[in-house]
Amino acid sequence: MVLKSRMPVLVIAIICSVGVMAFAAATGAKFTCLGAALGFAIIAIEITVAANRPFLRDASGALKADADASLHASQQNARMMAAVYGWGALAIFAVYGLTELWWFHSWQYGSAMALIAAALLGYDYLLGDRESHFGTPRSLDVSAVLAMAQASGAAVGLGFLVASGKIASDRPDWPANHVFLAGGLALIFISVAATITHLRLRRASA
Question: Of the residues 13, 31, 158, 190, which has the fewest C-beta atoms closer than 10 A?
């Protein structure tokens, strides 16, 4: 799968982004922090495009070449979502654990993101289990609906984040807001791409 070949790039992007964000937070370099966060989001989106392109280019052809194409596409997109949540958790833990910045809710949000990442990896594992019901067409349909719900929720959250002026805030949560902005953008794109890919493959197999 495409994602497997891009995994080293994704891991390096996570490490570099988290490291730069922690350094920027320690020195108060807000634009550098925001750039590091958005840089990771861009790389995650690019990898998602590459991972879904073979399925979107020719859905019927993908099905002929791989009877489990829809399942494999769902696994790749679940891993990308897990990577984004994992990055968010690491970034928040690094920023508020390695610098003098202190934000009361940092460990709550960081832990929540880590748990979601773990749940998505668990879901990816279950998709690969032939005896699991998570890989059935109906279950994959439900996952597509949940992906769109996630995209909608992230879009609402980003709208509030921007409208409230939190991106330009001087409060201690400013690095976390950069995580929410970049992570939200990446999750919206991945969720929409996952849903479109699923619908294309589902239609081709009907």
Answer: 31
Contact criterion met (CB below 8 Å) for 92 and 110 = yes
Sign (positive or negative) of CA dihedral 187, 192, 193, 199: positive
The rounded distance, in Å, linking the Cα atoms of 134 and 94 is: 34
3-state secondary structure of 170: coil
Question: For residue 123, what are the CA distances in angstroms to 24, 87, 116, 120?
Answer: 34, 18, 10, 5
Summarize pLDDT for 116-146 with one digit per residue, the tens: 999 999 999 999 887 888 888 899 999 999 9
d(CA 142, CA 161): 28
The one-letter amino acid at 199: L
pTM: 0.93
119/174 Cα distance (integer angstroms) = 27
Q: Burial of 154 by CB count in 10 Å (0-12 exposed, 13-18 middle, 19+ buried)?
A: buried
